[in-house]
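Can't paste images in this forum, so I'm doing it all in text. The chain is below; anyone willing to post the predicted structure tokens underneath?
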Amino acid sequence: MTITLEKPTEDIDGDAIVDKIAWRLIPLLVTGFFVAYLDRVNVGFAALTMNKELGFTPEFYGWAAGVFFIGYCLFEAPSNYVMHRVGARLWIARIMVSWGIIAAITACVWGEESFVVLRFLLGAAEAGFAPGVILYLTYWIPAAQRARILAGFLIAVPLGSAIGSPISGVILSTMDGVAGFSGWRWLYLLEALPSILLGVVCFYYLPDRPTEAKWLSSAERDWIETTLAREAPPQDGNHWRALTDPRILILGVAYFGVVMALYGLSFWLPQIIKGFGASTLATGFLAAIPYACGALAMWLLSRSSDRNRETVYHTAIVAVLGSVGLAAAAYAPSHSIAMIALTLAAMGSVSALPTFWSFCTLALGPADAVVGVAVINSIGNLSGLAGPWLVGLIKGATGEFSDALLALAAGPLLTAILILRLGRGVPRR
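Text version of the structure:
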């Protein structure tokens, strides 16, 4: 009889294990976040024809589109706590199926009241997905490799717009009038269906913890558990104490700044580009350019962050880039220069996300991250209401987007200032 011995833990290649985990988990999670983000921001394309058909003013659209984040923020922290208790497999599946159903029902909107209610319900249904996955990955990925793995997940943000924009443009322009329905109604319906299907897949596919991953050897599981336990300080089990930590508020405000730019741009970019004189179909493809560049910037920045074991300056520098891009776009002398500036703004806003969250999980520690990540995300995502609403108010008052873009530029600049302040007290990875 031959006995096969597992490799000793000290001989394990940690980077190879992390890569193995990433290839197993990240494709499904990034696909889930891709369709979630698409269902969240496709309202920007629907607005190209929906606003006129339903009589929505710029002020109402900017506010109502952002109502999503009221429901989202109210339920984020409780959602993360429930996921920590019942497991990611069940809870993430529940989130995806429920938001997919509500996103599909949005195709039945008939006026202002129904639009506001469904945007709120969509936010409540999706609440906890992004912070839940960020928390979930801390169960699997050591801090030294976390920024690039988080980037692998958060790259769904720019991809949701880079790939989703042409898809939305095609649906909006080709499905209009099919079976007697407007193109924007088909847009909501067709882009909601993948969420429901992926929710079912998550239920059968995702393991809750490394101990349940049969595709890892026992030595690999031991290495993960040992490494994560070594990084974790002693815990008292009180996850809610994070609510009294002043760092949570500061990090939430810092996240508010970059997200204000991200969503203020995402919800209005199709209308900004359409104002350049582009057709609906061309708008879909042009709107993909800033976010395709943003995806590349996110990937490069996260790898640099992990290689240098540094998150503070990586986050601050690209946040400043996003601010400069928005300010330059505000008064660009031509449409071409405006597109370049908007591309820089998108690159800065989205590429700050993985290094920001890597910094947060490192600064807070495992126990405080359970609730802390969700609270930071909740505070930050309030700007998902503030940003689009601010743009709508300024656009309605002036008839132009210039002053609105200049106002958005203040957000990432605030992020850079606060992250530099907090970074002085956090050790390098």
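The first helix runs from residue 14 to 41. The chain is about 75% helix and 0% strand.
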